[in-house]
Amino acid sequence: MQPTGPTGPTGPTGPMPPRQKPASMATYKRLLRKEIKRKAIEPEINFLNITAMLDMMTIILVFLLKSMSQSSASLPQSNDLQMPKSVLSTEASQEGVPIIISKSHIMVEDEAVVDVPQDATHGVEAKYKRGGPNDLYITKLGQTVKAWRDTDRQIRQATGKDASGSEAIVIADKDTPYRLLVEVLFTLGQNEFNKFHLMVLQSNKTGGS
Amino acid sequence: MADEKLSAAQRSKIRRIANPKELAPDEEGGELNIVPFLDIVTNVLMFVLATVTVTFTATIDTFPPKAGGSNVRPPTTPVLGLTILIVNEGFSIKARGGNIAPGCDATGQGLAIGKSSDGKDYDFDGLKKCVTHLKKEFMSSNPDSDETSVTISANPNIPYQAVIGTMDAIRKGDDNKDLFPDVNFGLAR
To answer: N or C: which terminal CB in chain A sees fewer CB atoms within 10 Å?
Structure first.
């Protein structure tokens, strides 16, 4: 059998065959496109597209965090402050300065203003009152809410609302003695607060304790 | 030219280029791998839902006591003028200037509504019945009246929960009609 090799079938002594002349660039590109198209794999969805679900969950999370931070549910329910229960099911009002009466402090917008004594059946201590132990006006609380009232009056005038009085949201502990409650309401009333929103927890039972 | 032949090098290059590329596992789909992020979000969501106690709040609207004085003109129409005083033993009720006697049927001395039989809890149901009865009697003689205001006062040591319970009891009757939803607080001096 005649050996074949790089030199061709004619043998080592024969002439070298001419090299194949490359095709033109246009032909090359046309055939390349054709080949790419032929070998292309149809894209198949082999994974779950969870982007939409992720969007939804993120929106729910943001909504929950935002609504909870705004609502009174964010109020810490501790031994120091447990709101009373009521059968009332109306929506809680959000307008007004929040006045918190816990077992230890009276607070205006999260700032402790006056200490509440252990036995508050006679209200706050006499040193905080304008005219001695029998007075109902709490001086320091009055100063704080007066500043708030002045600001609120200007806002109400600028926005065209009734500026004759302001509103207060009273968040008091369920064991707050009536005397202390009245002292706070009296002080607010003296500083042109003409509407109080007493905040309660909704319950099914009347006088639920 | 359709009959033009490719050279060996060109054929080889076309074969190499036309072969689809193998994608790395993390490149598949051509998008960011957000599964770990999704895990975190789910965990946070579950944690928030499980730990936050959902509490529904409401507000009871009240107004400061109206100032009275000698120059205030007396009302031209009869008024009930309901006043409830919460004391340690129960409820003392005043209406039309007189003290309501026990049993809630007539005026006289004593507490209108005592505490429950065990002496621990306030009898809010009894208070509601009494107030409903008083309003019904008053309305029968004054059908044009629509008085809904009441003054609540209490001993200094009465807890806030008892005051709220009292307001709940007299707000609406059993027929869901308004009794006395407008509350003024009396100043216990």
So the answer is: N
Any A CB within 8 A of B135 CB:
no
| Domain residue limits, chain A | 74-202
Its pTM stands at: 0.70
Of A21, A86, A123, Cβ closest to residue B168: A86
Rg (CA), chain A: 41
Residues of B in contact with A61 (CB under 8 A): 41, 44-45, 48
CA B58 to chain CA centroid, Å, is 2
Helix-strand-coil split of chain B, %, nearest 5: 35, 20, 45
Per-residue pLDDT of A51-73, as tens digits, reads: 788 788 888 888 887 777 665 55
CA distance A151 to A148: 5
Six token digits for residue A193: 């607060």
Distance from CA of A14 to the nearest CA of B (A): 22
Which residue of chain A is at minimal alpha-carbon distance from B61? A197
Question: Which residue from B110, B101, B90 is spatially nearest to B162, judged by alpha carbons?
Answer: B90
The gap from C-alpha A79 to its chain's centroid, in whole angstroms, comes to 25
Please give the structure tokens belonging to residue B132: 């409903």
- ipTM of the prediction: 0.71
- How many pairs of residues across A and B have Cβ atoms under 8 Å apart? 212
